[in-house]
Amino acid sequence: MRHARFPGPSLGSFAASLIFAAGPACAQSGASSPVPELEEVVVTATLRPVALARLPASATVLDQRTIRDSANQHLEELLPQVPSLSWAGASSRPRYFQLRGVGELEQYQGAPNPSVGFLVDEIDFSGIGMVATLIDVEQVEVLQGPQGTRNGANALAGLIKVKTREPVPESTLSTFVGLAEDGQWDMGVVAGGALATGDGAAWRVALQRQHSDGFRRNAFLGRDDTNDREETTARARLRLFPVEGWQADVTATWTDLDNGYDAFAIDNSYRTLSDRPGRDAQRSLGLALDQRWALASGAELRSITTWADSDIVASFDGDWGNDRDWGAAGPYDFFSQTLRERRTLSQDLRLASASEGGLSWVVGAYALRLTEDNAQDDDGLYLGDVYLRSLDSRYHSTSLALYGDATLPLGGGWSLGTGLRGEQRDAHYTDSDGFAFDPRDRMWGGQLSLMREAAGGNAYLTASRGYKAGGFNIGAAIPDERLQFGPEQLLNVEAGYKRHGPIVAVDVAVFWQRRSDQQVATSYQADPEDPLTFVYYTDNAARGTAHGLEASLRAQLSARWNLDASLSLMESRYDGYSYGDRNLDGREWAHAPGYKYSLAFTWRHPAGWMARSDVSGEDAFYFDTSHDQRSKARTLVGLRAGYEAARWSVSAWVRNLFDERYATRGFYFGNEPPDFPPRLYLRLGDPRQAGVSAEWRFQ
Prior knowledge:
By secondary structure, the protein is mainly beta. It is globular and about 75 Å long.
């Protein structure tokens, strides 16, 4: 393994954290107070709920306490706390994720084909994860490694699930507001309680609205809001008991993110010059009906039906400039817009055995119908030459799968787990250029695990196989031999140890994975002096390998102090991959940092005062396969302090305390006339931001 430069932050960046870190040594003043015990963490993204301590795989669960204490509004702000998880900043909010270096960086054209599954409750938003606002979220679950049995072709690298709070019969009503720099404000309300049926049925609703200017100043237009965020979320849940032994959960979620996209600047600053700023909007409506029937034998029959409809607008000013600033080198202009509509309908039917003792098993059948329509319009102008291009496309696919999972106690603290899934995907694609594809892929995946109770915890060894469907590239500039690419398979071998006690919870895992027929997204510029000839396509590399470590720690250090920490180390490489004059054999994958870590101390006083310090860091990484430009390693520090009473709370917070400048995405190409020299252009992460938040609980 390459020895990562871990972690390497400056002394100044650790200063705020060390103030709090010294606290546990002085916490004896609260020693007479009872130390609160850590709650058991249950993972629900698996085929049946399982305690995190008993899951024979690496996983991270961020609970409601973590979300609240770090004052986060969107999943983007939680990502630094998750080992091995990255995101590519090709959108205003994360749509595209990478787990252990595996995942998409963007989707410009072709079939939706995500490597990282993404669920909100049980509704599948894989590949369009912008909907992950955190209003009324109970926990965020991240399963690292292939989830071939659980989620099939959409979870080659792993699975992310955002789980909202379930309705309960007790009445609840709360509201919150917040103000921050960058013109940010947010407000919301959560309410719930019992239904009149009197059988335990309940309801819950949550509403939130947030605005911010987007940390950019468009100097050409004289505006501060060309990269703004206008985000609205509405969620509703019902829990019904129509008859004895039948539970029905109804979930509805509506998210409207109407964001600007003016994130790139010619000089890689927060000062843009675009004359036609873009837009990055996603409006998603999702519905789910989750029904459970308790059978006489103690088994359970479960039916999960989901439907989702998403309208997406992705547009950008491709030259990031204007005729005035181009001067004699112009006129030069380029703009691209894609209108995307995606609809999914899924049905999952599972039969699960009784879970008390002996052999436990789940068998099921799954069907998914996905339809996506795209309308792409590009226009450009350079030295009198006009470029116009429109492409309308339609894609639909049907996925059918059968799966099974079983766990068998072997005695002496040993247990054996197995899982298997077979899936067939039939797809059809047509577009206005006359391209048509009808790929069919038959794939399989699964896992085999051995777990043993040892040293007060659980040790495990797991081998798992994930898969991802093939696809196609479109465009007249794509060579015939690259028009289609095949499925990818990922073999993962993992060993780990978990010890979850009332005061300390430790998870450690080491893994090795091998990708066969590895799908690699790349790009090239056919004419070095014409950025309008920039082409994206996906190819099958020969293979790729990676190995690494993931660890997390939760500790209740005293009655007043608790610690949360995580670490991941990874080395990845392409094996035998080259294209054109580029040889990538032995090079790291894109967006696969060698290390990532987080450290958080939280202090609470019995009188109601609280404070929290967060430090997170990430190694440098390659931006893409088409070039060898890299990001810089980064360290981010956040602070929060406030007061919590029985029915209200108020706090002040700051993110990126030391105003670290870091990149979430990078492109390397020629974009500046008249010579168009290749340069690295960066999408920067958010700078320092401070704010205040308040909450009132009426019931």
